[in-house]
Amino acid sequence: EQYRSIFENAIEGFFQSRPEGRFIRVNRALAKMCGYASPEEMVAAIRDIGEQHYGCRKDRERFLALLNEKGAVENFEHTARRKDGSTFWVSVNARAVKDDDNRIFYYEGSHVDIDDRKKAEKRLMDAEQQYRSLFDTSTNAILIRNRTGIITMANRAAATLLAADKLDDLIGRSYLDLVHPEDRLLSAQRIEKIFQMAADPHRFDQWDMDAIRPREHRMATLTGGVVDVESTGVAFPYKGEIFIQGIFRDTTER
User: Fold this and answer.
1) Could you tell me which of 107, 80, 105 has the C-alpha nearest to residue 94?
2) Between the CA of residue 143 and those of 161, 167, 172, what are the distances in Å?
3) CA–CA distance, 179 with 150 (Å, rounded to integer)
4) Which partner from 47, 51, 116, 208 sits 20 to 30 angstroms from 174, CA to CA?
């Protein structure tokens, strides 16, 4: 009775199903998750789990292959179908229950609704792709530097500006080595100010803010040339560290 109570009242969706693709039983949580009024309705309605319950039959085939091979699966993610035909993401833990002859008798396991998490991951991925596209296609040069001043990322415009044959020629270099020698001291001071403001923005007044506004200076190219630029630096946190994104606009012709 205790196990029955756990099965029927759990917030996770529990199930038992036959290898041929029919549910033996499901609990109320799984039925509700899938849009059915009761466990009995869901069991009666779904005659082919791969076709009616899975969003993609190939996911069902992969799921069965893993169960048959390993006897159990953990955190198997797939899209599931609701009664109205809409789909949502679930994470499944399951095991194969075998008879005395080591033949699979049925499968049993649990479903957890992870649709909100998957949607959040997709939004984050979309945002990252959008940023990557903006980063790569920007006509302004962009250099990302860590706290020690080492360049960790650069876009194609930066390679063009600094006469680098490829992006790897810039990655790992000290940013200040690419600043004209006569402008390095002021650049170093501005960089330190940006990092200090990122660490404790409440310490600084408007004068400090004005001190790190866009400025014009010179950069030294990898071929020994000099290029005039207007640059802006913005600090941002990433994985517990602070980096600077520098944007550079070529002002040589002007």
Assistant:
1) 107
2) 11, 11, 11
3) 13
4) 208
| Neighbouring residues of 93: CB distance < 8 A, sequence distance ≥ 6 | 72, 73, 74, 75, 76, 109, 110
pLDDT digits (tens, 9 = 90+) for 207-221: 455 556 788 999 999
| Sheet containing strand 226-238, strands side by side | 151-154, 141-145, 241-250, 226-238, 215-220
Rounded CA gap, 205 and 184, in Å? 24
Token duo for residue 87? 């789909």
Identify the H or E element spanning 108: strand 104-113
Give residue 22's identity as a one-letter amino acid code: R
Name, in order, each residue with C-beta under 8 angstroms of 188's C-beta and a sequence gap of 6 or more: 176
- Measure the N-to-C terminal CA separation of the chain; round to a whole number of Å: 83
Q: Please, what is the average pLDDT of the chain?
A: 91
Token digits for 210?
A: 């004005």
